[in-house]
């Protein structure tokens, strides 16, 4: 499979009126997280081959009809810090981090996300979802008519062997479980390539463009967008 580079103007997710932000809170997911090693996301050791994946270095992504990938760069260092999957009007931002052998990170990271959102005047709520405990964050944002609303993001996290994978759902997927299902499926299919090199916990695993990114994409393949500055939500947590 081959992929192409394209440029897409970065767009902000529209703010929602405060009184309408109830869908994500009212939906209830499973009471317990599924088994990661069986259902994903997966470690590199748990898959037989990299064939058929979009190889972004630390992350292997499964192609999907209509999927667009955006690599996001940190302005100060120009390093790739995240990949965002755009599908059906919703988005899923992915970041993978090094983790200790015998400890998990998600509980601590959830607490830090909550503190960061609170410092920005936002609200946070823990909910149970397909991947266990999740966070729904609501950040203040102005509406076109001048009234006050919120921008919503749903945080999911999975601890793996010596790595931690975080996803941030935006758009309709942050509010509506049915809209999130296609991106949740892609999240489950992600393969994390931790590597054997020692790394401090919480260090980002290195992402990169695939080797064949300059080629022309097939009609059904994902479009890989040119790296751009990541959204502000990247800085939360």
Amino- and carboxy-terminal Cα gap: 35 Å
Number of helices: 4
Number of domains: 1
Shape: globular
How would a textbook summarize the main sheet? Answer: 10 strands, mixed
Query: Count of DSSP E strands?
Result: 14
CATH topology title:
Protein Transport Mog1p, Chain A
CATH class: Alpha Beta
Strand percentage: 25-35%
In short:
The chain is of the alpha+beta class and 237 residues long. It has a single domain (52-210, 221-228), classed as Protein Transport Mog1p, Chain A (3-Layer(aba) Sandwich). 15% of the residues lie in helices and 35% in strands.
Write up what this structure looks like.
The protein has a single domain (52-210, 221-228), classed as 3-Layer(aba) Sandwich (Protein Transport Mog1p, Chain A). Helix content is 15%, strand content 35%. It contains four helices and 14 strands. It has helices at 23-26, 36-39, 106-119, 177-189, and strands at 5-6, 16-17, 42-43, 54-55, 59-61, 68-73, 80-87, 90-98, 123-129, 132-142, 148-160, 163-170, 191-192, 223-229. The N and C termini lie far apart (35 Å).
What order do the helices and strands come in, and which of them pair?
Blueprint: E1 5-6, E2 16-17, H1 23-26, H2 36-39, E3 42-43, E4 54-55, E5 59-61, E6 68-73, E7 80-87, E8 90-98, H3 106-119, E9 123-129, E10 132-142, E11 148-160, E12 163-170, H4 177-189, E13 191-192, E14 223-229
Parallel strand pairs: 1-14, 3-13, 6-14
Antiparallel strand pairs: 2-11, 4-5, 5-13, 6-7, 7-8, 8-12, 9-10, 10-11, 11-12
């Amino acid at each position: 499979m081959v992929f192409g580079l394209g440029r897409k103007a970065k767009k902000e997710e529209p703010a929602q009126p405060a009184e309408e932000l109830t869908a994500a809170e009212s939906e209830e997911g499973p009471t317990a997280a599924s088994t990661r090693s069986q259902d994903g996301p997966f470690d590199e050791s748990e898959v037989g081959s990299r064939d058929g994946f979009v190889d972004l270095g630390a992350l292997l992504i499964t192609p999907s009809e209509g999927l667009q990938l955006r690599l996001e760069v940190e302005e100060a260092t120009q390093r790739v810090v995240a990949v965002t999957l755009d599908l059906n009007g919703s988005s899923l931002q992915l970041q993978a981090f090094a983790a200790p052998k015998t400890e998990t990170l998600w509980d601590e990271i959830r607490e830090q996300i909550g503190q960061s959102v609170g410092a920005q005047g936002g609200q946070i709520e823990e909910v149970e979802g397909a991947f266990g405990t999740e966070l729904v964050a609501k950040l203040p944002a102005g509406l076109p008519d001048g009234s006050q609303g919120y921008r919503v993001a749903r945080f999911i996290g999975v601890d793996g062997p010596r790595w931690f994978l975080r996803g941030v759902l935006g758009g309709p997927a942050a509010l509506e479980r049915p809209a999130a299902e296609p991106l949740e499926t892609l999240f489950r299919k992600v393969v994390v390539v931790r590597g054997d090199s020692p790394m401090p916990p919480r260090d980002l695993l290195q992402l990169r463009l695939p080797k064949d990114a300059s080629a022309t994409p097939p009609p059904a393949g994902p479009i890989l967008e040119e790296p751009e500055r990541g959204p502000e939500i990247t800085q939360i947590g």
